[in-house]
Structure prediction request, 392 residues.
Amino acid sequence: MSSDWNRRTKLVHSGTRRSQYGEMAEAIFLTQGFVYPSAEAAEARFLGAGADDFIYARYGNPTVRMFEDRMAAIEGTEDAFGCASGMAAINGALTSLVKAGDHIVAARQMFGSCLHVLKVLGGFGVEVSLIDGTDLSAWSAAMRPNTKVCFFESVSNPGLEVIDIAGVSRIAHAGGAVVVVDNAFSSPIFSRAVELGADVIVYSTTKHVDGGGRVLGGVVLGTRDYIRGPLETYVKHTGGAMSPFHAWIMLNGLQTMDLRVRAQAANAAAVASAIAGDVKLNRAIYPGLMDHPQHALAMDQMGSGGTMVALDLKGGKEAAFRFLNALEVVLISNNLGDARSIATHPATTTHKNLSDEDRALVGITPGLVRISMGIEDGADLVADIRRALAAA
Ligand SMILES: *Cc1c(COP(=O)(O)O)cnc(C)c1O
Prediction:
């Protein structure tokens, strides 16, 4: 049975729907809508909630449904909804769960756009408490009778702090709250989020799922009641649905995701151990290194240190820029999860809008460089990064 398949098999085959032509590759249904043979058939289609009752691409599309079914199969949830971007998915997940007067507890180690969504919800009367997500006692202390959602990135961007999904889930569930996890940095390959107690799991599929830096996408995963109930209702009526073309790109990405992500993580581990202790660094941050504050948790939760490495250079912004400008293989950009290795200077790019104080709070020093390891040859990456460190 397909539900018994191991993940590499599911990544290739799950969710595939073949048309009457029996095409090999997943078909792309680049269509906004569907034609009905009669008025009665149209009426029936609008009444029916069958898995193949498609009526309008904002509500669902066969290519998008293949992507959703494949994502749910690999994550181990009952259902999934494809969204236009990671942020459409996060906005949908949070907004569909709260109303004025409700309370959200969230880890302050967070992507700037996620903070913005919380700020917007705050303007509509949702109370938000930002805490240090790595401190379980802070989660307990922040819970209130009206807490509806506990929200966090399981591995934070860009500081690579690891948050305990099982620990937060125990606290949240004891207080009647739903756990929403932004699992982007873990990637679906290193996710055990369902088993650890998360209720709603969100990915920016722009990252490891596409894996080629081509298109934006996102997905929300959870129970069928939640996904086809409040989540789908919110996203389909507010315009955040995934494009069929992007779903088709993502289906192709999924087929090779396990191979890519494991190669990326092996490169990340090789680079982190090769440069740990380098004289130019305050520290090399990688959850797979023994000196990482949540090393044991990372290994238990993900079974890997992941695909991301952060370096804190001693010479601040000037040293970071010399390092970046000396790189030959690793590209300067701001995506992650790509097959190409990418280095980012968060303080002047992705996190430039934060105040100095907020940047310090989430560990973004002027010398911090975040590297998303690609699938290039590991020895070439180690040599490139070592040479750039020498030039810094
Ligand atoms: C990239 C990212 C997002 C947003 O995803 P988009 O696809 O760019 O909208 C959200 N959370 C994290 C942790 C991310 O890395």
Residues 2-253 form a domain with the Aspartate Aminotransferase; domain 2 fold (CATH 3.40.640.10). The pocket of pyridoxal-5'-phosphate is lined by residues 85-87, 90, 111, 113-114, 153, 157, 182, 184-185, 204, 206-207, 216, 218 (CB under 6 Å). Residues 244-275 form the longest helix (32 residues). The mean pLDDT is 96.
